[in-house]
């Protein structure tokens, strides 16, 4: 029998989303000053939303609520993915930096999708 996790910080998807947040903060620190209230703010808010929603959903104690917050985290990850692509198109980030962030974002999206399906099956949803 698999033991139930007792701390969201043990979730690999949470750990990876924290890593993505650190990457995004480093990248956006080099964005033009006139983007502070635009793309910089938007992508930072979205990337922080990913681990925050994973943690909040985990802390709610209900699988149904956890799925709800995982879906929000997944939406935020898709938003970050789009904003990375925009940042690359605007030449705010290099193609290599964009690819690093996009690869991690894709991995997080897949992990969240898998978690949603597995928890959903467990609760019959």
Structural write-up:
The mean pLDDT is 94. Helix content is 78%, strand content 0%. It starts with 11 loop residues before the first helix and ends with a helix. By secondary structure, it is mostly helical. Helix 2 packs antiparallel against helix 3 (63-89). The longest helix is centred in the last third of the chain and has 28 residues, at 95-122. The chain has four helices and no strands.
- Per the principal axes of the C-alpha atoms, what is the gross shape? elongated
Listing every helix as H and every strand as E from the N terminus to the C terminus, the arrangement reads HHHH
Q: Describe the main β-sheet briefly.
A: none
- Unreliable stretches covering 5 or more consecutive residues: none
**What would the average pLDDT be, to the nearest integer?**
94
| Helix content range | over 70%
How are the SSEs placed, and which strands pair?
Layout: H1 12-28, H2 36-60, H3 63-89, H4 95-122
Question: What's a quick, concise take on this entry?
Answer:
The chain is mainly α.
Primary descriptors:
125 residues; elongated; 4 helices; mainly alpha; single chain
